[in-house]
UniProtKB/TrEMBL annotation:
It is a multi-pass membrane protein. Its main location: membrane. Keywords: Cell membrane, Membrane, Transmembrane, Transmembrane helix, Transport. Belongs to the binding-protein-dependent transport system permease family. FecCD subfamily. The keyword Transmembrane applies. InterPro entries: ABC_BtuC-like, ABC_transptr_permease_BtuC. One of its GO terms (molecular function) is transmembrane transporter activity. PANTHER family: ABC TRANSPORTER PERMEASE PROTEIN MJ0876-RELATED, FERRIC ENTEROBACTIN TRANSPORT SYSTEM PERMEASE PROTEIN. This is Iron complex transport system permease protein. The keyword Magnesium does not apply. It holds the Pfam family FecCD.
Amino acid sequence: MKTQVRAAARLRPAQLAVASAVLAAALLAGLLSGAADLPVGGVLKALADRLPLVEVDSGLSAVEWNVLFELRLPRVLMAALVGGLLAVAGAGYQGVFRNPLADPYLLGAASGAGLGATLTIALLPGDPGLTVPLAAFVGALGGVALAYLLGNAAGQGASHSATLMLAGIAVSSFLGAMQTFVLQYRSEELQRIYAWVLGGVGSADWHQLAVVAPYALVSSVVLVLHGRLLDVLAVGDEEATALGLSAARIRLLVLAAASLATACAVAMSGLIGFVGIVVPHVVRRLAGGSYRIVLPLSLLAGAAFLELVDLVARLAVAPGELPLGVVTAFVGGPFFVVVLRAARRQVST
């Protein structure tokens, strides 16, 4: 009965409206917060003025207009995009591995991206610019591909998911060791490398958003559209086969889309942990376990969550700024303790 109810669950308009409202409020808070005070009415009018067939005098000065559209808006959109991608990728991985604690970085994406960025920063003279995000993107996809090939060669059938997880751990350890080796010989670049590894969206601009937007859109759409199929996989591969579905093909498509989403997020912001675990788990507890609900709501909730995290990072030590990975670790650490204690109670009862 439980699986039948889960399979029949659908995303309700009220759930979508609440998640969208929370995201809109988080985005507005991000636009209004900073060293320069911008009027709420002026910001709303300026945003409305950018809509087609709408002409509104915002009353903002040239400096305020540049602060809003050249500094804050790209940063706000970048934070929302990264958070949404990490959260929906985490939900996708959790559906494939049938493990609510599966992480977007599980299959070597983080270690591959870290190695790619480290090599670029350490070996290229001067400011590498957009080469770092590109190297991180290629490294993340390369790490995932290596883990998948290794796991696919080592095991098939019912144990395939567990084999993939073990392959991801092995690849992550190997690539992490390579990164440490590079750091050992380029210690003068430690500050720049760790600044990227700890994550941030302070360097966001419109060009970066335009480059990554197509990949982010494709991966998000593929993941959200596979919600019903992940519900079927949650029942078992045999049931999926009985319905004429290929469990291996579904698993490969979801893994590819989740890995692409993770690579996009890592390339833009560096390594930001816990988003892909915390957000899907909270959504699952509040809205239900069906992936037709978890995936789209995780996309919206993840965007709102990281936007609020970026807001805390900017305001906590102003005029300085905390790395986003540090803030999410403060949230994710206690969250893990709560989850583990809850799981222990379920086992004991």
